[in-house]
Amino acid sequence: MTDLYQAQRAMRRMRKQAMDRGVIAILDVGSSKTACLVLRFDGIRPAGGVEQIGALAGQSRFRVIGAATTRSRGVRFGEIHGMHEAERAIRTAVQAAQKMAQVRVDHVIACFSGAGPRSYGLDGQVELAESMATEADIARVLAACEMPPIGPGREVLHAQPVNFALDHRSGLVDPRGQIGHRLACDMHLLTVDAGAIQNLVHCVKRCDLELAGIASSAYASGMSALVEDEQELGAACIDMGGGATGLSIFIKKHMIYADSVRMGGEHVTADISKGLHVPIATAERIKTLHGGVVATGVDDREMIDLGGDSGDYERDTRRISRTELIGIMRPRVEEILEEVRARLDAAGFEHLPSQQIVLTGAGSQIPGLDGLASRILGQQVRLGRPMRVQGLPQSATGPGFAAAVGLCLFASHPQDEWWDFDIPAERHPARSLKRAVRWFKENW
């Protein structure tokens, strides 16, 4: 057995044990904020008596009993750059959530953006040992998928089967128990930079917590912001965060592509700060209260007080029109959307049956963004909010919490992945396993 396979299975077992005990924490490590949610589970209801932690195993009912956020420190572009600052932010958020929930948590499931995600499509096929497909056959067909050369310093974050075909019948969700002769599988593989994962794992361990799962923010945001029909027919979720903008494409309720743009709301704030010569805090306030990307005739007459406490009267009483502010913000927002457009084109998004685009994340709340995105992306665009989950505070229902809410769904109802099946060690794709994560050996 390989380090990668064993470590992911260890995290799956750890998550199941934490869920059986009833309490687990969700940790969203972002560039602008660190959010923590504490979940209490009511139990797991297996479907069809299949004891497994996959998407086919039934769903766990949960309730949010604690929530807290704090300003992120030591995180840039969705990756940890300052270990001590990031550790302090995580400790602050987790302790505040524990205090609200009045319970101690030892296990967390974390998500992060950035880290240069890359998507690969894999396929494999095998002859069935018997006439009926079994779980062992699924394990064999997953092992038959030839791994691409993901390159040095890369880690496999998600490896999900997205489609099964039995003989001439394709589009099967669960082929187990069905009759046939040849089983084929399509699998989506998502790899990220190994260093970003190592830093996050090490930071969580420094906070005296055990990592019971890890996921991509783009994947989690798509799970919570896209409605069921959009996930089925094909849709893209654009999660505009502070330091990075995540992109995920779903079809048939599976993620088939993910990517990230290393720009977000903090870059818009930095442009305002440089353009108006004001501190970052003042620029953030101006962006939040008066920002926009579409100017109208009224905006020329709407004046904004910049304020300040420099002691220079003329500098501290400066005023600008909202049109000037929009003129600073719009070019950066257009640049972000153009980068997203390039990645959608590279992924072949135009070939999907439905081409809905959903904007979420804290950066998506800029007024007029949906109209600008429709013109640049050329598709149907709507603003998305995370679905409501039981016990979620009103303050955590905004678009900025899409990844955290999606991670709750990931914890309670995870999709099947490669390591959920007992693949024989000799059948593991050696090519990928040679490049598989060395940090697992150091941390497990």
UniProtKB/TrEMBL annotation:
Primary localisation category: membrane
Pfam families xrefs: FtsA, SHS2_FTSA
Extent of the signal sequence: none
Keywords: Cell cycle, Cell division, Cell membrane, Membrane
Subcellular localization(s) per the UniProt record: Cell membrane
Gene Ontology terms describing biological process: FtsZ-dependent cytokinesis
InterPro entries: ATPase_NBD, Cell_div_FtsA, FtsA/MreB, SHS2_FtsA
Subunit note: Self-interacts. Interacts with FtsZ.
Family according to the record: Belongs to the FtsA/MreB family.
Function: Cell division protein that is involved in the assembly of the Z ring. May serve as a membrane anchor for the Z ring.
Protein name per its UniProtKB record: Cell division protein FtsA
Lineage: Bacteria, Pseudomonadati, Pseudomonadota, Alphaproteobacteria, Rhodobacterales
